[in-house]
């Protein structure tokens, strides 16, 4: 096929393909999510401390 006839189309919105993670990848995602939640809790606690003690 010549270069002039090749086109790159955008993926369609109708693709119903599903993606499944391996068990290891799934555990990694959940571990990362838990770490993010811990970090958010720590940041909230520190912000509250700063707002009450440093103002």
Give a concise summary:
The protein is mainly α and 55 residues long. The protein has one helix at residues 23-53. The chain has a domain at 22-55.
Task: Chart the SSEs and their pairings.
Blueprint: H1 23-53
Keyword list:
I-spanin, mainly alpha, Lysis protein
Describe this structure in words.
With 55 residues, the protein is mostly helical. The protein has a domain at 22-55. It is 56% helix and 0% strand. The protein is built from 1 helix and no strands. The chain has one helix at residues 23-53. It is elongated, with a radius of gyration of 23 Å. It holds the Pfam family Phage_lysis. InterPro entries: I-spanin (IPR004929). One of its GO terms (biological process) is viral release from host cell by cytolysis.
Largest sheet: none
Structure class? mainly alpha
Kindly state the percentage of residues in helix: 55-70%
Mean pLDDT: 85
Cα shape: elongated
Fraction in beta strands: under 5%
Q: Total number of β-strand segments?
A: 0
| C-alpha end-to-end distance | 70 Å
- Total number of helices: 1
Radius of gyration using CA atoms only: 23 Å
Low-confidence stretches: none
Query: Which sequence of SSEs, written as H and E, runs from N to C?
Result: H
